[in-house]
């Protein structure tokens, strides 16, 4: 039979006794560990929680980051005890905004693990007060502001532009993205954009601002320490400069005890 197939008997038996590849062995170990931990934690860990728990308990003989754990759980249909996906667009929207994968795990060990974002109202004008929306993307590691965008209103294109600028400064990274349930963040366009960047999307629950508290604290400091101590800009150009200078101040000049007395930029450079 082997000769008819053009295969020697020795080659055939070597094929039968072949060992699985290292990657296959690691994936088998990873799936087993994930299932054990989900069972132990009542199917509540999720992607980030699972990644954290695997490392904390030393379950693996190799390093597995968020991206690999997420792919493994998705490919093996391992889901947490969260509302299941529905097929119509409205139900999919509801399902998506119910996932808070970050789960207030704000202290990160390295840069570009988790980015948080939000938008707030800013004003400018001489006699007439004009309103605009300021979007900021913040890396949780060191609370470093990666990018910003100012737009007339809170729109999906404006949010995507803020992230385009962040990914331009930090290319080839795939952080978890945490947002609230604003309409722009729930839109199909924004979530398709994140999927194209291979990023997992986490969202706060409604009425739970503490689930994005680092961003809330950053806004508080930006408004009280910076905006409130400068004259209201008269034009959009002046507003743009004020915001740009403020972000530079908090990134490169303002030191915090929570960052060991370092600025956000200095703290972030430790992970380089």
Order of helices and strands: HHHHHEEEHEHHEHHEEH
* Tally of domains: 2
Q: What level of helicity do the residues show? A: 40-55%
Class per helix and strand makeup = alpha/beta
Task: Outline the biggest β-sheet.
Answer: 5 strands, mixed
Shape-level CATH architecture of the largest domain: 2-Layer Sandwich
Low-confidence spans: pLDDT under 50, at least 5 residues?
Answer: 83-95
Q: CATH topology of the largest domain, what is it called?
A: Nucleotidyltransferase, domain 5
Our count of helices gives 11
Instruction: Determine the mean pLDDT.
Output: 84
Q: Quick one: how many beta strands?
A: 7
User: Would you identify the CATH H-level superfamily of the largest domain?
Assistant: Ribonuclease H-like superfamily/Ribonuclease H
Distance between the termini: 59 Å
C-alpha geometry = elongated
Radius of gyration, in Å, reads 23 Å
What is the CATH level 1 assignment of the largest domain?
Alpha Beta
Q: List the strand order in the largest sheet.
A: 3-2-1-4-5
**What share of the residues does DSSP label as strand, in percent?**
5-15%
């Amino acid at each position: 039979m082997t000769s008819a197939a053009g295969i020697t008997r020795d080659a055939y038996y070597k094929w039968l006794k072949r060992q699985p590849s290292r990657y296959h062995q690691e994936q088998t170990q990873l799936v087993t560990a994930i299932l054990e931990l989900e069972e132990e934690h009542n199917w509540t860990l999720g992607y980030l929680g699972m990644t954290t728990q695997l490392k904390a308990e030393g379950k693996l003989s190799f390093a597995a980051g968020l991206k690999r754990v997420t792919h493994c759980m998705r490919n093996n249909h391992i889901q947490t005890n969260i509302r299941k996906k529905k097929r119509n667009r409205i139900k999919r929207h509801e399902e998506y905004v119910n996932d808070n994968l970050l789960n207030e795990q704000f202290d990160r060990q390295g840069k570009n693990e988790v980015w948080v974002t939000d938008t707030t109202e800013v004003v400018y004008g001489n006699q007439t007060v004009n309103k605009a929306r300021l979007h900021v993307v913040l890396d949780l590691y060191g609370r470093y502001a990666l990018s910003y965008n100012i737009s007339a209103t809170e729109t999906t294109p404006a949010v995507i532009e803020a992230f385009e600028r962040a990914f331009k400064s930090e290319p080839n990274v795939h952080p978890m993205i945490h947002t609230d349930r604003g309409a722009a963040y729930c839109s199909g366009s924004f979530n398709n954009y994140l999927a194209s960047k291979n990023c997992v999307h986490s969202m706060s629950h409604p009425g739970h601002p503490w689930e994005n508290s680092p961003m809330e604290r950053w806004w508080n400091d930006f408004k009280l320490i910076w905006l409130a101590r400068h004259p209201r800009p008269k034009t959009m150009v002046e507003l743009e400069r004020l915001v740009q200078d403020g972000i530079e101040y908090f990134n490169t000049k303002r030191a915090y005890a929570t960052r060991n007395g370092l600025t956000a930029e200095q703290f972030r450079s430790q992970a380089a």
